[in-house]
Specification:
- With 250 residues, this protein is an alpha+beta fold.
- It folds into 2 domains: 55 residues, no CATH class; 180 residues, Galactose-binding domain-like (Jelly Rolls, Sandwich).
- The protein has 6 helices and 10 strands, in the order αααβββββββαβααββ.
- Strands 1, 2, 4, 7, 8 and 10 form a 6-stranded mixed sheet that branches.
- Strand 5 and strand 6 form a beta hairpin.
- Helix 1 runs antiparallel to helix 2 and helix 1 packs across helix 3.
- It is globular and about 50 Å long.
- It starts with a helix and ends in a 14-residue tail after the last strand.
- Bound molecules: calcium ion (2 copies).
- The site of one calcium ion has 7 residues, from helix 4.
- The site of one calcium ion has 10 residues, from loops.
Length: 250
């Protein structure tokens, strides 16, 4: 197998170098093994370097403006909490710069501390610098017509198209006053369990359009349960699936 590597590597350069390779290959198998080892090491090292370089090419931006989420105004009766009863939204911003290629992957990381004690109160939306393109991360989680899910949120949580966690399912599985487990989830529609594609919402932005101030708004629509966003990050164009471990900003 290594012989093939040697010949292909040299043969691809020029006819002269290919001819030079053959006499070497005929001398001893030990020589071939030594050469092959070095070529394999070089190729392997190159691949590792390329892997690391592409991985580190992801752009990560820490959110500014984290803090307490103003409480909502609604409550008391069924359906009393809705868009009209949202408190002032907490706006966390990401100063995106240096993006030179189209968006191929985008993810959000979010942590709450102190935890918010009622996930169904919350509406989280990511908006591009143009203020027009936006996508929900989650909202009215567990909306069933007779109330939203009462579980807590602490995190950290990661959301992107390349993740598979079921946010609504995790909320349903967690009892009242029990935290939705930290983990990796798909973003979901506001008030609906359907997954949302962040790439569909933002993938058509040019680099020029994508560089600028992105905003993550977190609004609470119901009185009585509160919490704070303690950290947030926006990751763009990571070569690997955007994972919880990939976020280094706390
Ligand atoms: Ca629950
Ligand atoms: Ca509330």
């Amino acid at each position: 197998m290594f012989n093939i590597v040697v010949y292909r590597t040299w043969g691809s350069r020029s006819r002269a170098s290919s001819l030079q390779a053959k006499p070497v290959a005929r001398r001893t198998s030990a020589a071939i093994r030594a050469i092959a080892f070095h070529v394999a090491a070089i190729v392997g090292g190159f691949c590792l370097s390329a892997f690391m370089a592409s991985d580190s090419s992801a752009l990560q931006f820490s959110g500014s403006g984290v803090g307490e989420i103003p409480d909502g105004l609604g409550g008391g009766i069924e359906g009393g909490c809705n868009a009209a009863t949202e408190g002032a939204a907490l706006a966390v911003s990401f100063a995106v710069e240096g993006l030179a290629a189209p968006i191929t992957n985008i993810g959000v990381r979010l942590s709450f501390d102190p935890p918010h004690t009622y996930v169904g109160d919350l509406h989280v939306v990511l908006a591009a610098p143009d203020g027009v393109r936006s996508a929900p991360i989650f909202g009215d989680t567990g909306n069933s017509g007779d109330g939203d899910d009462s579980s807590d949120v602490r995190g950290p949580y990661a959301f992107s198209d390349s993740l598979s966690g079921d946010w609504w399912g995790a909320a349903a599985a967690a009892d009242e006053a029990v935290e939705i487990p930290s983990g990796e989830y798909r973003a979901t529609s506001d008030g609906l369990t359907q997954a949302v594609s962040l790439l569909a919402a933002f993938g058509n932005l040019s680099p020029v359009q994508a560089n600028g101030r992105w905003t993550l708004t977190i609004a609470d629509d119901c009185i009585g349960d509160t919490g704070s966003v303690s950290a947030a990050a926006l990751v763009i164009n990571e070569s690997l699936p955007v994972s919880l471990q990939s976020f280094s900003v706390d």
